[in-house]
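Changelog-adjacent note: as of this version, every example in the card shows the full chain rather than a window. The one below runs 205 residues end to end.
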Amino acid sequence: MPTVFEEQEAEQQLRDECGIPDDWASKAITIDMFFLSDHGRLAKQIAEKYGIKDYFEVSHMVRQACTRLCMPEGLRMFEFKPPTGHEMEGHSFLLTATRRDLEMGIPKYLGRLDTDQLYNAQSIVADLIKRKTDETKRVVWRVCDDFMCLGNFREDEYLKAVEFMAEKAKEKHTDEPRGRLWHKELQIELKPQRVPESEYESFFE
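Full-length structure tokens:
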């Protein structure tokens, strides 16, 4: 998950890029992974609520949005609100912080270091990389479609992962509208990923 420092950096980057004044209040919002993965049902509900006949087009639009928002660690969106007295008072605006934005903290931090500090950091990072590389590896079973990871399972949960994949495949087959991208929308796979033991539990948080 992004640290508080990374969130602050991401928020500031959004303010700088979009010209959002400092007196506008902001709040970080975490988007639930299930919401993003359940785009088919969401598109159907939107189409029914607003009387839209072209359900495929709605599904395609939602899929495009979800693809850009996809972050297994938890997406960050920022809600910005203008101050009292502003002509837009009472309205709020949501902006998405991408993975790139959330990782801006590290480069910016390193950019503040002098030459000696950078050489020292380089040595520390090389040591940390070696430790990670030498660590015992464990397998995470990952169920993914063509756009994102839908679920992670432990080494001994292979059959559980298979059942989950079958369940998601059935949902996709039911919810996805038939069209020229239907075969791509239905694509789903189960794959093993070897990860350092120290990172293993983070896949299930």
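Structural remarks: Residues 1-112 form one domain.
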